[in-house]
Structures are given as C-alpha cells and as structure tokens.
Amino acid sequence: MRSRFKPWAAELIGAHPEIIIPEPEKVKGKWQEVFGNDHPLHIEAGTGKGRFIVGMAKMNPDINYIGIELFDSVIVSALERVLEEEGGIPNLRLLKVNAKDIESYFEKGEVDRLYLNFSDPWPKSRHAKRRLTHETFLRLYETVLPENGEIHFKTDNRGLFEYSLTSISEYGMLLKDVSLDLHANEPEWNIMTEYEEKFSKKGQPIYRLEAQFQAV
Ligand SMILES: C[S@@+](CC[C@H](N)C(=O)[O-])C[C@H]1O[C@@H](n2cnc3c(N)ncnc32)[C@H](O)[C@@H]1O
Q1: Which residues define the annotated binding site for substrate?
Q2: What are the residues whose beta carbons fall under 8 Å from the beta carbon of 26, sequence distance 6 or more?
Q3: Which of 7, 83, 137, 177 could make an SS bond with 210 (beta carbons 3.0 to 4.6 A apart)?
Q4: What CATH number corresponds to the domain at position 34?
Q5: Quick check: ipTM above 0.90?
C-alpha cells in the first residue's frame, strides 16, 4: 500500500507511544505486561491502514492484537482510526517495523496467531523472496508461534494464492481451510480489510486459507 508522503505523520506517531510502541525489542517476551493481561496475542503483518486489525480488536476484546506496518504514511491512518474511538482500543497496539525482523520483537510462542491480508504479490519470480508467504518468512513465523500455531491468509491475487498454497504445503504445514471465493458465502466473523473492500466491490473473488505448523 503506497500513500502520499505525510510530513506530519512522524510527529503524530511520536505523540502516541501508548499505541505505536517505539522500541518494541525492549518488550520482547513481555507483551502480557504491555496489555496488562494474559489473553492470546494475534498479530497482522502488513496491516496497512488498520481496518482489519481495528475491527478484529473491537469484535474480540478478550484477544490482544498487534498490527505491523512498514510505512509512517500508512500506519498513521491506523493510528487515526484508534484515536477516533472513544476510550481507545485497549487490546490493540501497532508496530512500525519490518515483518522480517519479527523475531526481534516476540519470543517463541508469544504470538498465538498470525494474519496476512492482501500482502504485496511481488509477481516477478526474482522477487519471490519478498513475498510474505515465502519459506524464509514461514520459518520466521514458526519461531514466534507456538507448536501448531496458525497463519490465516487472504488475498485477491490468484498468482500469490497459488504460490502460497505450494510454499505452505512444501513447508509441511497443514492446510485446514481453503476458500476460492470467501464472499460467495461470507462468514459472519469476516472483517474486511481496505483492499478486500476495494477488490470485492469490483467483483473479484477473495481467496483465503488457514494453515497450521506441524510438530516434527
Ligand atoms: C497491499 S497492502 C494491504 C494492506 C492491508 N493488509 C489490506 O488488506 O488492506 C500491503 C501492506 O503491507 C505492508 N508491508 C509489506 N511488506 C511488509 C513488511 N515486510 N513488514 C511490514 N509491513 C509490510 C505494506 O507497506 C502495505 O501497507
């Protein structure tokens, strides 16, 4: 997701360290202290403008959520969504970091579930390593999830979905649920992301899968 440069974004982000955690490596292994409870922790890598993670946090107050996003100009929109909520969203935090460094921020087993939504497809084969479902990323996710931890993935991009099915199954994960048209019979628990809303309005099918790591 590209967004116009917002010169004011860094200042707004800096003014809200209670929401966008400034040095998350310092709280590695201590996220329960940050949230003040021992509820499960679900994270989204590539959270964009936050429609999904904010919706999930509001729908499931007994689950803690963290949205991870690379860019100031994008994550600031997620921050604004949180600030619009009266009383804030106590079970949600945001990290302006790269998902490839996820091990620096979470201990083994500290994350109970990982969401990937409409990840950048990187269609050229030479960029395959950048796809968030590449084997290298799966290995990273495995280090922060518990045994049998799950990844839930949605996309409108058929090529990325096909690639991900192969990458995930070659990794030895168990595919638990696969949908080739999520909106044909949309589950009541589905929270749409910004991209999902945009592409489904155009009539494009939304692909979804749940995959579980397997103990060796
Ligand atoms: C195509 S957008 C989708 C945004 C949102 N998930 C949605 O569905 O509307 C992908 C987002 O992932 C972010 N992103 C890509 N690679 C990332 C990485 N390695 N770490 C963190 N965020 C990343 C991009 O900056 C972008 O905002």
Answers
A1: 124, 156, 193-196
A2: none
A3: 177
A4: 3.40.50.150
A5: yes
Question: Is residue 81 situated within a structural domain?
Answer: yes
9 pLDDT tier (thresholds 50, 70, 90): very high
Express the helix, strand and coil content of the chain in percent, nearest 5 each.
Answer: 40, 20, 45
Domain of residue 182, residue span? 9-212
Residue 1 in domain? no
Average pLDDT across the chain, whole number: 96
Q: Which residue's CA is minimally distant from atom 4 of ligand 1?
A: 48
What is the separation of C-alpha 11 from the centre of its chain, rounded to a whole number of angstroms? 24
pLDDT one-digit tens code per residue, 164-177: 999 999 999 999 99
Which residues, judged by CB distance below 6 Å to any ligand atom, belong to the binding site of ligand 1? 1, 45-48, 68-71, 74, 98-100, 117-120, 193-196
State the catalytic residue, choosing from 62, 120, 177, 181. 120
| Cβ atoms within 10 Å of 147's Cβ, excluding its own | 12
